[in-house]
C-alpha cells in the first residue's frame, strides 16, 4: 500500500551517492524521485563510515577512478553495503556508479579494489569507449525494467569492462540498439536486485523511470518487513 500521501514513494528513503567521485545527476531525476514522495538521503561513499537506513541506492555517474584510493580505503562502508545488497537492497547504478559495483578499477597503472558485487573489472582507456546517444532494448528480466521495454539516454565513458568469472545469476539483460554499452551489443548488468548500465537516463525522456525505482524500493521494504516479522 502507498503511504497516506497517496504518492508511490511516500515514506521511502532513497540513498543517492553524491560526492567527489559520483556527481553526475540530472536535477530532474532527483526531483522526480522527490515528486514521487521519496526522501533523498545523500551519501559520500569515500568518507561515510555508516550506511543510513535506505530503501534503495542510486549511484550516478562521475569519475570514481580519481577517488579510487579513498573509495577503496573505506572498507567499513563497503562491507556494510555488501551485506545490505546481499539482503536485497535495490541498487541502480549508471556509468561511474557501475564501475564502483565491480571488482577493481584500473587507472594509470594503479588498481583499486571496489565493492565486488558484480564480477567485472573496469579499465580506464585513453580515449572514449562510448560517446553519444544510446538506446537499449530489455531482453531479460531486470529489477527495474521488464523485457520488451526500451531505455534511452546517452553514454560517455572511458572505461572498458573486463568480465571475470560471472557470479551466479549475473547477466547482461539489454540489447544495444544504439551506442556502445559493454561490448557494442549488450548492456544492463543485473544480479539480484542490482542493475548497472552505461546509459545515463533523463527522467523527462523516460517518464516512468522514477516510478520504477520507487516501486523497487517499496517492494524491497515490504520484503524486509515480511522477513523480519516471519
UniProtKB/TrEMBL annotation:
A Pfam family that this protein carries is GATase_3
What keywords would UniProt list here? Glutamine amidotransferase
Task: Give any GO molecular function from the UniProt entry.
Answer: cobyrinic acid a,c-diamide synthase activity
For the CobB/CobQ-like glutamine amidotransferase domain, which residue ranges apply?
A: 13-206
Q: Which PROSITE patterns match?
A: GATASE_COBBQ (PS51274)
List where this protein forms a coiled coil.
none
Q: Which CDD domains match?
A: GATase1_CobB (cd03130)
Superkingdom: Bacteria
State what protein this is by name: Cobyrinic acid a,c-diamide synthase
Species per Swiss-Prot/TrEMBL record? Dissulfurirhabdus thermomarina
Taxonomy of the source species: Bacteria, Deltaproteobacteria, Dissulfurirhabdaceae, Dissulfurirhabdus
Amino acid at each position: 500500500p502507498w503511504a497516506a500521501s497517496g504518492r508511490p514513494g511516500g515514506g521511502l528513503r532513497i540513498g543517492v551517492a553524491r560526492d567527489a567521485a559520483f556527481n553526475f545527476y540530472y536535477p530532474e531525476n532527483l526531483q522526480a524521485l522527490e515528486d514521487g514522495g521519496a526522501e533523498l538521503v545523500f551519501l559520500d561513499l569515500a568518507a561515510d563510515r555508516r550506511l543510513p537506513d535506505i530503501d534503495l541506492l542510486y549511484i550516478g555517474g562521475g569519475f570514481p577512478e580519481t577517488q579510487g584510493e579513498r573509495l577503496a580505503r573505506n572498507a567499513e562502508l563497503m562491507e556494510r553495503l555488501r551485506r545490505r545488497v546481499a539482503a536485497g537492497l535495490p541498487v541502480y547504478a549508471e556509468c561511474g556508479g557501475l564501475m564502483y559495483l565491480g571488482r577493481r578499477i584500473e587507472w594509470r597503472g594503479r588498481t583499486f579494489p571496489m565493492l565486488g558485487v558484480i564480477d567485472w573489472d573496469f579499465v580506464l582507456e585513453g580515449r572514449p569507449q562510448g560517446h553519444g546517444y544510446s538506446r537499449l532494448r530489455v531482453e531479460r528480466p531486470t529489477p527495474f525494467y521488464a523485457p520488451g521495454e526500451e531505455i534511452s539516454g546517452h553514454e560517455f565513458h572511458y572505461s572498458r569492462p573486463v568480465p571475470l568469472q560471472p557470479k551466479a545469476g549475473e547477466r547482461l539483460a539489454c540489447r544495444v540498439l544504439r551506442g556502445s554499452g559493454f561490448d557494442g551489443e549488450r548492456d544492463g548488468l543485473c544480479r539480484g536486485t542490482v542493475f548497472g548500465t552505461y546509459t545515463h537516463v533523463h527522467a523527462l525522456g523516460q517518464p516512468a523511470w522514477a516510478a520504477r525505482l520507487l516501486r523497487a524500493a517499496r517492494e524491497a521494504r515490504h520484503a524486509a518487513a515480511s522477513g523480519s516479522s516471519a
